[in-house]
Write a structure and sequence with these properties.
It catalyses: isopentenyl diphosphate + (2E)-geranyl diphosphate = (2E,6E)-farnesyl diphosphate + diphosphate. Keywords: Isoprene biosynthesis, Magnesium, Metal-binding, Transferase. InterPro entries: Isoprenoid_synthase_dom_sf, Polyprenyl_synt, Polyprenyl_synt_CS, Prenyl_diphosphate_synthase. By secondary structure, this protein is mostly helical. The chain has a single domain, classed as Farnesyl Diphosphate Synthase. Helices cover 71% and strands 1% of the residues. It has helices at 3-20, 30-41, 47-58, 63-84, 101-105, 107-126, 136-151, 156-165, 173-198, 203-230, 233-236, 242-245, 251-255, 257-276, 283-291, and strands spanning 94-95, 98-99. A two-stranded antiparallel sheet has the order 1-2.
């Protein structure tokens, strides 16, 4: 397998799936819908939809059942980015090399666009019920439960709330770990779990995938900290050095780049060892998880 070529092909397919569920921007709320579409179409790696599709394929599931969840996950993830960029949060003007939603559409409309994407995400995921039959109905219900738990107060939003509340304050490693494992890790955990759930994978495998997602999520966020310290705005497609400007305590900021790089390698290696213990195989997904360790943006 040529990973680079396969990644391009699968990313292109994931992007097509995600965009196929976006609303048509017309009618009285055309501006809102346009802002929602702008946010999702601004780009991105589509990592989470790729993970859902890959784990569903890995366990021999119905990939058409995974498509609404692929789109829903990207909508919910994008909602978090739109709100994260707001003046009340990180106050960033660029995301993925483009002006952020609040810069283009205004702060109020960006808030509504984020809310709209969150709501549409759940609506889109629930649409999977129309594509299933028999035992698959239970799979979709379980996947929806995971999606709700991992995006709510006990997951992504909980991590975001702690990050906001402690903004600019010195943080303990326990606090940093909580923020990383919830704000970033929760959606990665959910993405690996949901595809497998939709395919009817055993609970033991779901638990292993959740643990893999935790390590991958923490490694991904620490790598993000490192890139913020070492790369340029042009390379990242978003403002470099924003953590320092916002006086945000990060793992890399506490331990230094070299030690942070080593932690990323250790977390990634453990995740891959756990991946190799799974009952099923998916070479592309393994390569994708490994590639996150040395990404440049």
């Amino acid at each position: 397998m040529n990973f680079a070529e396969e990644l391009k092909k699968r990313t292109r397919h994931a992007d097509e799936v995600v965009c196929s569920f976006l609303p048509v921007a017309e009618g009285a709320d055309e501006t809102l819908l346009s802002a929602m579409n702008y946010s999702v179409r601004a780009g991105g790696k589509r990592l989470r939809p790729l993970m859902i599709e890959s784990t569903c394929r890995m366990y021999g599931g119905n990939e058409k059942l995974a498509e609404p969840f692929m789109a829903a996950m990207e909508m919910i993830h994008t909602h978090s980015l739109v709100h994260d960029d707001l003046p009340a949060m990180d106050n960033d003007e660029y995301r993925r090399g483009k002006k952020t939603t609040h810069v283009v559409y205004g702060e109020a409309m960006a808030i509504l666009a984020g809310d709209g994407l969150l709501s549409l995400g759940y609506e889109t995921a629930a649409g999977a019920f129309a594509r299933c039959s028999g035992q698959e109905t239970a799979y979709v219900a379980k996947a929806l439960q995971i999606l709700s738990q991992k995006t709510g107060p006990g997951g992504m939003l909980g991590g975001q709330s702690v990050d906001v509340e402690l903004d600019g304050q010195p943080l303990s490693e326990e606090q940093i770990d909580y923020i990383y494992s919830h704000k970033t890790g929760a959606l990665i955990e959910a993405s690996l779990m949901i595809g497998a759930v939709l395919a009817g994978a055993p609970d033991t495998e779901i638990a292993k995938l959740e643990a893999i997602g935790t390590d991958v999520g923490n490694a991904f966020q620490i790598r993000d900290d490192i890139l913020d310290m070492t790369e340029t705005t042009e390379e990242l497609g978003k403002p470099a050095g924003s953590d320092e400007r916002n006086k945000k305590t990060t793992y890399a900021g506490i331990h230094g780049v070299e030690a942070a790089e080593e932690t990323v390698r250790q977390l990634s290696a453990r995740a891959l060892r756990q991946f190799d213990d799974l009952e099923a195989e998916e070479p592309f997904l393994r390569a994708l998880l490994a590639s996150l360790t040395n990404r440049r943006k």
